[in-house]
Design brief:
Layout: H1 10-21, H2 25-32, H3 36-43, H4 49-57, H5 63-70, E1 85-92, E2 95-103, E3 109-113, H6 120-128, E4 132-137, H7 143-146, H8 149-155, E5 160-164, E6 175-177, E7 182-185, E8 188-194, E9 203-208, E10 214-218, E11 221-222, E12 225-226, H9 233-244, E13 252-255, E14 261-262, H10 263-269
Helix pairs in contact: 2-4, 4-5
Amino acid sequence: MPRIPIEDNFNDVINKTQRGLKISDEDLAGRAEVSAADLAAVKGGEVIPAVIRRVARHLRLSPNALEALAHKAWYPEQPVFPRGFAMFNTPFEDMTVNSYLIWDVRSRQAAVFDTGADCQAMLDTIHAEGLDLRYIFITHTHDDHIADLAKLAAAHPKAEIWASEREPVDFAGAKTFKENAHFHLDGLAIKTLYTWGHSPGQTTFFVTGLSWPLAIVGDSVFSCSMGGSPTNFEDQYRNNKEKLLPLPNDTVFACGHGPLSTLAQEKEHNPFFAR
């Protein structure tokens, strides 16, 4: 798979945080003791390290991590799953979106997480690996994540479709789960964690039994960023810290956009979580 760019630039992080915290430009410039012109330049993508660092401190962001993101100085080391895991990256309008497939290598029982814009490569992998698709899990119902649900469901009509009770998917026969619901694929265990904020029912699926613990986080977290929300930003931030940061450090983050990462890497390089 080609190298997938990090989803958010440093100014995206600044803008979504400022919007989520409902801090005006005037207020932020005053707090950070920077000029309105310099703040506007940074928000527009100009790299001015001193301004970036000052602004970061007043947006609850790590100055070091945000500056590194501005300089494109880091990219997450990609974890390798020898078997039982596949990632798909498909174009949707002006961006790309990820979807995922996991399976138990002995029983061939499998589960899908979201569909992306086009599920054909996923269907091809299911066929090539001889998998028995048991579940179609939805992280959240934004169009880019469920765009090809009808095609996937038609190809595997026996697979159960599941989404959060906080954000049911509008699809015939779909079921809803509560937080801390448990599912199994023979040797694999899947647990639901409510990491909502970006959307009402945004869910993380924590998977054990593969080569690494795996958190399919949807748009809860991206490498070097997290999902934004103009109305529930604080909820998203709190749920990420309370539900995701306590997971094992070697947990792989399978994000809705951008590359794979790990919890350990995000604790060091994500401006929202780094010290």
